[in-house]
Amino acid sequence: MATAAQFSYITVNSPNFHLSAKRFAFSRQVNDGGKIYSCFTDVTSSRHKPKSLSVVCNNSNPSSDISSTAKIRSEVLSPFRSVRMFFYVAFIASGGLGGLIASTRLIAALANSSRAAEVPEILKGLGIDLGAVSIFAFLYYRENKAKNVQVAKLAREENLSNLKLRVDEKKILPVNAFRGIARLVILAGPSSFISECFKLSAPFTDGLLERGVLVIPFATDGISPNFEFEENEELEEKIARRKRLWQLAPIYTTEWAKWIDEQKKLASVSPESPVYLSLRLDGRVRGSGVGCPSWNAFVLQLPPVKGIWSGLLDGMDGRVL
């Protein structure tokens, strides 16, 4: 849905410049979170006036509910859908034209008693044309509906991929930065639910990390979950692996809450229910459910991301939901 262009002006005055009147204009593009802004900098100076620097930024990339990336991914995933839909439309047009011709012939035959013997044959041809139009119209409707569902799903996945994660104190990355690297598992629920999932994952830490699993805990009650790590030098390496498994933290929580609420609404899940959602290596949704995920199932079902099986079984993450 297109939005009006946005402009911002910044003016900086410096009384120390006394130059002859000149104007300089600079243009550049700024990419902010996938949105491209065209920025024009206008510098005006004169001998009697302080220097004025004006920056005008124009949002030239209107946002839309369905991104072009989602549409392209849909075409890649279903390359022959457009061809099928084209032929469906062609068959509908052909059947409609045949039905129109048969209708004119039927009217002429009914108006002329000498051509009454042609009526059964004309009706038969008209029935075939109408049947063909109905069948191909149904096929086109079903194909178009499947396309819209797929594009909407891919658009939601693209929205998820743009959400931000804090890796450490100095690094913030979007979800799409982990494509091909990690299988993310999103936990959304009260802090008590997050803490319970944290404790249940302890025996499977090594297996989960070997399969590239990283957890994104999102506390819906606004209370930071308490991750208790035993400070023990003998278990220092194990603790480090536990922290690595749970190191990611969502930021801009309003956007995360909005996205999760939309998923719950689409799945007919109560807004208060704690849920989990797992992603494949390619960033697409692999599975979801209510309550804590089965960490043992992840270890049994997912192939390691390192070793001789790396790359060969990357697509064996499970079917896409």
UniProtKB/TrEMBL annotation:
Keywords: Membrane, Transmembrane, Transmembrane helix
Signal peptide as annotated in the record: none
Membrane among keywords: yes
Superkingdom classification of source: Eukaryota
Membrane-spanning ranges: 86-110, 122-141
Alphabetized InterPro entries for the sequence: LPA1-like (IPR021883)
Protein name per its UniProtKB record: Protein LOW PSII ACCUMULATION 1, chloroplastic
